[in-house]
Amino acid sequence: MGTIDPNGLATPSRLLFEPTYRIDQGRLEVEREEMFEHEQSFALHDAADPGASIDTARLGHTRLFRVQSTGHTVRLYEPDHVSVLLIRRGRMVLDTERETFTAAPGDLLLFTPNARTTHVLPNGRGQFESHCALIRTEALSETSQALRGSPIETRFNRTAPAPRAQGLARLFDHLFAEGSDPSSILGESRPARDAADILICEMLDALLREVRDLDPDRKRPSPRDQALVRQAEDLMRERYREAISTRELATSLSVTPRRLQVAFENVCDTTPLSRLQSVRLEMARERLSSAGDNETTTAIAIDCGFSHLGRFSRAYAKAFGELPSRTLRRSRT
To answer: What is the full DSSP assignment across 129-144?
Structure first.
């Protein structure tokens, strides 16, 4: 929706997202505000043309950020917000005081107030992009008090069975698309932005409540289970091209197949082989998003361990909301 100038011509609406930070080849060009109030250090990684940018949208209690980079490391302390990070291109490795998280395209990371070091790693085309949100804790009415004594740090895989996390990711996809469209009502309508803010807070509140599970007797995954799952996922990413079984994974990790299955049930509520398929889908999406001119959907699917192309297409569409051929076409535009 646009406005009409005195000559009767339509003028475009204000974009929801505005550039707030730009650094190009190590030279700061724009810095209207910092993404994090308590940023301790920021350093670009070596690259042919190093740079980073942040576009920001404000929705009441929520700030949305589109982060693009050739690779960087940032250390920060976030005391007042819940952070939600959705990886779109490249990878991210985050070190907190408790754990290390590795996230790929489609993964959603959720952190209540914490300190962390984030390593941003570009894809094969030298690109990284994430969609982020910072939501003030006092906006989360049913969980804000409990969050202070019960920190949450977790990663959701988009193809894993976590409906509330998937719903929040879909909402982000919609808001970031709308926020970049000059014809969207979000850019000019305060009530529309307020409604989006309320929806984000309500959906995040429900997700936090689900993760934390208000039952004090809830059995939480042990650090040993979590470490075993991380090791297994790292191995899956190394060997995603191979026809590898649960037994082979377990042998490589010096545990029994049953021990590995139990760890995945406790941590992810899924099986090792289901998670392996998710990893293969993630790798296929990353490959399709940065494919060369001579690469095809079929060749990439086979190289990622999928022998049945029809099943691959159906699983891919279910996980990412589009056919693999669509991802490939978009990467070449």
So the answer is: EEEEEEEEGGG-TTTH
- Strand, coil or helix: 219: coil
Residue 234 and residue 238: Cα distance in Å, rounded?
6
Same domain, 279 and 174: no
Q: CATH number of the domain at 70, please.
A: 2.60.120.10
Burial of 218 (0-12, 13-18, 19+ CB in 10 A): exposed
Domain that holds residue 261: 223-331
pTM for this model (two decimals) = 0.64
The per-residue pLDDT for range 65-119, each reduced to its tens digit, is 999 999 999 999 888 899 999 999 999 999 987 788 889 998 999 998 888 999 9
**56 in a structural domain:** yes
Retrieve residue 123's tokens. Answer: 């894809």
Both 275 and 302 in one domain: the answer is yes
Report pLDDT digits (tens) over 165-178. 989 999 999 999 88
Domain termination residue (choose one: 162, 186, 212): 212
1 belongs to a structural domain: no
Written as six digits, the tokens of 221 are 């995954």
Task: Give the length of the chain.
Answer: 333
Q: Report the run of H or E that residue 202 belongs to, with start and end.
A: helix 190-212
Q: Per-residue DSSP letters for 254-268? A: TS-HHHHHHHHHHHH
Q: b/e for 189-208, b at 16 or more Cβ within 10 A?
A: eeebbeebbeebbebbbbbb
Three-state SS at 69: strand
